[in-house]
């Protein structure tokens, strides 16, 4: 299956995945070349053999290329998730998971944390953790002349839905965002149930600024946006608790070595694969890329690769 590609209904989702995304294609090419170079030094071949998977260097290179193409958007998304919602000491931190962060200002050329940011739609950001339960997004009623949108993006960087003027109108609403494993009942008052294929989702809010004197009105609208856990919204007990997670620190964007696969392996359990991808996932597992830990052999293989390529 070809990796999902985000649509361009309002803006490219990649515009909001850090200040490096304008160079994403170049970096992906650089990363792939570095990985292929590592494989050419027989690192991944030896690693696969440690895992009990006999591979030739050509086979290892081919699988590494597939893993890079499939995993690149996942790794980039996880890097943004970690920067925006996990790393509280980082410069890019916005707010904890399931907590809205409003940017009630107009972007200028001096602000380069977001690529191709609009100057007339102040932003709000929200990373949602959907493992425990869905999150309900509440929006207020707005005048017909004001545009707003909520772009919903999964860890594949696929824009899986939109809420806003062009799709749902300017009436007030409550939108339930559910992860891939949720099977609960929809409570009363929900305008729409929206499914996400991954366990984490990114919401990018845009609220139109109608003029230089309109910023206070935009702030008032932003303050009426809500993000509420389903159990709190429906006033009922949670049915499940996600295990405590120690979030892995992603590889720096400047790195182009096999640390890419460590970040990918950590993020893959949050990205259930489609049935059409099972053959691909089986191939990736041959070089140790898998959402399921492959025992201590994977640790041995990683150490062997690092040793062989002199990292």
From TrEMBL:
Entry superkingdom: Bacteria
InterPro entries: DUF1254, DUF1254_sf
Domain DUF1254: 98-228
SUPFAM superfamilies according to UniProt: VPA0735-like
Stretches assigned to coiled coil: none
Pfam families: DUF1254 (PF06863)
Name recorded for this polypeptide: DUF1254 domain-containing protein
Native species: Novipirellula artificiosorum
């Amino acid at each position: 299956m070809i990796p999902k590609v985000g649509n361009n209904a309002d803006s490219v989702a990649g515009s909001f995945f850090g200040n490096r995304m304008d160079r994403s294609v170049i970096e992906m090419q650089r990363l792939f070349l570095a990985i292929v170079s590592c494989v050419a030094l027989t690192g991944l071949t030896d690693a696969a053999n440690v895992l009990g998977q006999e591979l030739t260097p050509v086979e290892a290179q081919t699988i590494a290329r597939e893993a890079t193409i499939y995993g690149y958007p996942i790794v980039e998304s996880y890097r943004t998730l970690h920067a925006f919602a996990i790393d509280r000491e980082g410069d890019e931190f916005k707010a904890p998971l399931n907590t809205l962060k409003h940017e009630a200002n107009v972007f200028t050329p001096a602000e380069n944390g977001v690529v191709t940011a609009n100057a007339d739609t102040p932003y709000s950001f929200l990373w949602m953790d959907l493992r425990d339960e869905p999150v309900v997004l509440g929006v207020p009623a707005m005048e017909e002349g004001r545009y707003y949108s909520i772009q919903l993006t999964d860890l594949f960087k696929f824009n899986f839905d939109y809420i806003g003027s062009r799709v749902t109108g300017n009436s007030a609403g409550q939108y339930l965002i559910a992860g891939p494993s949720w099977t609960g009942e929809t409570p009363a008052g929900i305008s729409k149930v929206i499914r996400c294929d991954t366990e984490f989702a990114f919401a990018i809010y845009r609220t139109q600024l109608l003029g230089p004197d309109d910023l206070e009105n935009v702030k008032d609208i932003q303050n009426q946006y809500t993000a509420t856990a389903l159990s709190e919204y429906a006033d009922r007990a949670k049915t499940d608790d996600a295990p405590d997670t120690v979030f892995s620190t992603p590889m720096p964007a400047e790195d182009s070595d096999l640390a890419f696969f460590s970040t990918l392996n950590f993020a893959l359990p949050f990205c259930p694969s489609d049935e059409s991808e099972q053959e691909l996932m089986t191939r990736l597992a041959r070089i140790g890329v898998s959402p399921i830990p492959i025992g201590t052999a994977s640790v041995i293989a990683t150490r062997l690769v690092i040793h062989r390529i002199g990292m």
